[in-house]
User: Fold these one by one.
Assistant:
Number 1:
Amino acid sequence: MKDAVVQPFTLLIKPSGSDCNVDCTYCFYKCRAPQIGTGRQRMSNEALERLVRDYLGLRFQFSGFAWQGGEPTLMGLDFYKRVVELQEKHGVSGQEVSNSLQTNAILLNNAEWCRFLRENRFLVGISIDGPKDLHDHYRRDLGGQGTWDRVMRAIECCREHKVEFNTLTLVNRLTADHPDEVFDFLIELGVRYLQFIPCVETDPQTGGIADFSVTPKQYGDFLCRVFDRWMQFGAQRLSIRDFDSILSFCMSGRHSLCTFDRQCSQYIVVEHTGDVFPCDFFVEPQWRLGNLLETPIEQLAACAQKKTFARRKQDLSSKCLVCRHLAFCRGGCMKDRVSVLGGSVKAAGLGDGGSGQSYFCESYRQFFDYSLARFMQTAAQIRSGTLVRPQQLT
């Protein structure tokens, strides 16, 4: 296998754009409808083949396809059968290809879907916000009905057919006050890889923070409590994405999660149209890198605009630059210190005017003060061999 000509990256692909079959109150896209459009959005066969061919043609040792949305299962099962066919057609010997599918799981309620996902080793991420009352408060369908029962049926179908799945939980104004209930529920599901995403958006009507958004204090408290539960349960038995990244940094000096990384360069986003962007949170005209039907993805991934965006994460406020936790946090996600605080990417990190300060600064300072000593201790135990984590959790 020849050497890769660009730094390896993962693809985050939105084959159905922002189209979805549920109507979550806190949906990221509701605040951005003028930018992303609405209605039926589908990737063409031409764009799909060009995407797979050009990406696998880069000959990365590991090539990751992350299918997201909107709701990616709206593409239908035949689309993903075609994906696998094209990967087999354009891949080469020794190239490891993976597929992940982030979904609300509503359509994963039949044996045909689940058999396909199992046979082709798709890793499925299921969005669920905890027990029924917490989940259904914000996650409703287009008719206003809760979705928890249907998600649970899909989970049972995945279990029955031995589909590998993990969970993604939005930490919002409601769930943040119930860390133990949420944690216990997910553990009882048998899930051993958890993702917690803090939910904060602007209200498109007022321009202020939306009512469903978690407060910085709530999120800090939530992280601290879940960290305690993680340590009690056993870090060697359970993977929590944010905690894994911090543990990785304690051991190797490298983060596995872009939120805490020095630069935003771990993946690129491909929209259903073939348009390419550097980040899912910045699908905006000024950050459109180009279109893969017009320009090889290799050139788009290495273009000057992509590099400029990646470096923007280093534009930090003066408070960040003197913070004792800078190495662990790196200012957090740019989305949370730009969009929420009313700036723009160009304004990020210009001092104390607010544009470079994360909405979750208080959360992270509270959490790192509370947890870092135990992270360091756990890292030392792993290095000494007294604590062994399963390979998939490291």
Number 2:
Amino acid sequence: MDPAAKVQLALAIEGLGVDRIETGFPASSASDYEATHLISRQLVKAEFTSFCRAVPSDITTAVSAGGTARHQIQIAATGSDIHLEHKRRISRAEGIREVIGCIEHARSLGISNVSVGIEDASRGPDSLLRELAERSVDAGAHTLVVADTAGALLPGEYGHLISRFRSWVPQSVMIATHCHEDLGLSTANALAGILAGADEVQVTLGGVGERAGNTALEEIAALLAYKQEATGLYSDVNLERMYEVYTLLRDLISLDEPRNKAIFGTYAFSTAAGMHQQGMLRNPATYEFVQPSHFGRERGMFIGRHSGTGVLRRLLSELQIEVDDHALQDLYRSHIVNRKGDCEDMSVVKARLASEFGSATPSPTSITQSGIR
């Protein structure tokens, strides 16, 4: 995205009520520098984060771009021996020393909120992670980001890792989760992390991110909204505008909408199965735990070969058309069984029936709305 697009998206995300927005990597390009500069001057409530390597000049550049007010500097730290040996080719002592020096440099420039993003912490030994955490805090770090960079951990494993970090540093130090979707566990791991004592969850809209993606904002938001009693947690992020902002993101980066993804998938709130539709038409709560309206979505009913005659009879009844069982079977074959291609929206089939029987313009199919649980 160019700087103008990043500003547009950042302001839209701020409107959702998130606490902090990452603007980019100012030292990596003129574009990210300009985006950080512009966003820092237009955000009203949210704080913003600049990503930096453990290189003093990166931090100087980030502060030049975004100033110091409400500005968190996140310094990348190396949290595993495999990364130290094969990617960085430095020792543990060198890896820790460069991070400590950069924390001190950021604080000397007036940054009060320094975050240490511990890459590959999920595969790092406690001896390295604990020393890195304790010395970072002693040097002035305010936040530790515990990254499951390769998406390698199970929820129980990640929760235990977070609890160990929580025991190593004072309660005043924030701990953030950073999870990846490689095993399809980024949301489960993030939830395990906050239940184990993490204060913050790093998320992306739609889970957009490296490889299989990151923890999705909408999934964590749904969990906190619908499972508040079970978790003892809540979020005040705006659910209803979330899909609108996700659509903006997709437009800006030319991203196709996934078909079946939770909350934001094209068919996340749609059904074509006959037995499900029978229940849904009577009360959506039969097959719908998360309500689409809470996320700015609409419920969809599709008719295909898995749909039964019951949904067809419902449409005919709404059109005030009476047919016997034999005629119903004929209509079922012609309008559902023998039609080629994908499922059709219920409104399309209803309109076709109305045309066939010379009925008036069909009204929308009614579905009972139930309350949030």
Number 3:
Amino acid sequence: MAAKQADMDIEIVKVDANAEPALVLENNPLGKIPVLILEDGTSIFDSRAITQYLARASKNKLFPRSAEKRLEAERLEALADGLCDALLAHVYERRMRPEEKVHQPWLDKQWGKAVRALDYFNENAPALTKNPTVGIIALRAALAYTDLRFGDTKWEKGRGKLKSWRTRFDKRYPELVELLPQA
């Protein structure tokens, strides 16, 4: 989504990260996604490193020019990434362990982080600007991941402002919505 907003032409390759695909392992020793592979073969991994690269390569189309607004976008990106980290930890706890070994206190802790982040976003949803910042993009991607992995939890209940924000985002930036994770 950030690459699209930065007007960067990239090829999206979907992989199953759990299968430890060679393409990912060759380009990120941690085996994590996303990975951006440049034409010269250089790989950039971690969402924030990728967005920083895209911002520089696009003459800063992803961050506001003012220091205060840039910090706001960076904080929003960090919290959205943290939401995804907590949700991913929750997913992996269930996916990687047999049911009898799943540690419920760990799941509860991760879900608590997610709830606090979602509550924060509900009360502090960012304004939708003409050009969405990396923080706005990260938040929408995090909500798509929440829907994908936790849609059955009814996480939207009591978060009408955030639900409305998501709807407004989708109407305002349809070209970005088509890039959201799908089931």
Number 4:
Amino acid sequence: MRIGVVGFGARAAGVINHVFREASTEFKIVALVDPDKEKAKSRLLESDKDASFYDSLDKMLKSAKLDALFIGTRCNLHSPYAIEAAKYDIPLFLEKPVSVTMEQAMALEKAYQKSRCKVLVSFPLRVSPICVRAREMIAGAAIGEPNHVHAVNYVPYGVGYFEGAYRNYEVTQGLFLQKATHDLDYIMFLMGSRIKRIAAIWSLGKVFGGKKPSKLHCSVCGEQKTCLESPENRKRNFSGGTETDHPCPFSKAAGNPKDGMNEDSSSSIFEFESGAHGVYSQVFYTRREGERGAKVSGYKGSVSFDWYSSELKLIEHHAPFTNVLRPPSGMSHFGGDIELARNFLAMIKDNAKPMANIWDGIQSAYTCLAAKESASTGKFVKVRMANKH
């Protein structure tokens, strides 16, 4: 299967070289669009070294005779390339977030109204075994009507959003779009209903960011002995993150609250179209023992799970039973990446439907954009609804 790739960075290389190849050895990269050709070449497997490079997506799609397309660029370029791809009848694997601005999301929605391009959005959490089983329990009336959800994400590697490429706010547009796009998507999947209005709040610059020089690295900093983020102290304290020389997470390069930056933490409360409501919080300065999961409650029972502990629990409210299931642990994105790869393979070979389609991606983007607006204005915000006309 001949794959064309737009943006062959670390994430794209990890997915295609490892996860896709686990799903099928038939995947082969034959064409790429990437401005950094040398770095892209270095990420190719030996079997893909003969891949051709193109200056544009159009040229690649018209010349390379592709079976499928993968868009793995930086976040702010997902929409422009996906809009270009909408003109073609080809299976597309699109990284999230599908859009980082309202203008992008609306343009993407318009582009796919009559498109024959079948899109699988990279939402591995909703297709992970633990989330799929939780949804089956909820849809099967194990808890009655789902009336409330409480979800959390205590990110043990969150410092990376303040010392690497992801701290570039112009590209990421914040961690609602970069991170919560996953979580709000799986929450809507679990509840079987879209979020129609949302209120959010965030903490900016309370932990990370600051006034250190933008290009400061630990190796030239005079505070290595006392700074908790120095490689030496990270190793000593088992606090995670890069344990070699790295950019300072307390520098001006991380942005500032006035001009824009990733949040240290953020929370939201929201109402679904079904009338249920829920809350979600994400925290980016926690270390080691992360938590990521949700508890969905109905009158008859509650379903809860945590991906890090790999545990799914069904509590029956009106019977003396609690059932605990434990799926395998240690899989990429909790087993969701391989499920996406298998689904993409089926889309190419058997014309299967995507497990997370372009409309799911756009709806998640609209929800995250509404959360951003709410956090900025202090008001509840109605979420725009993505609709295929």
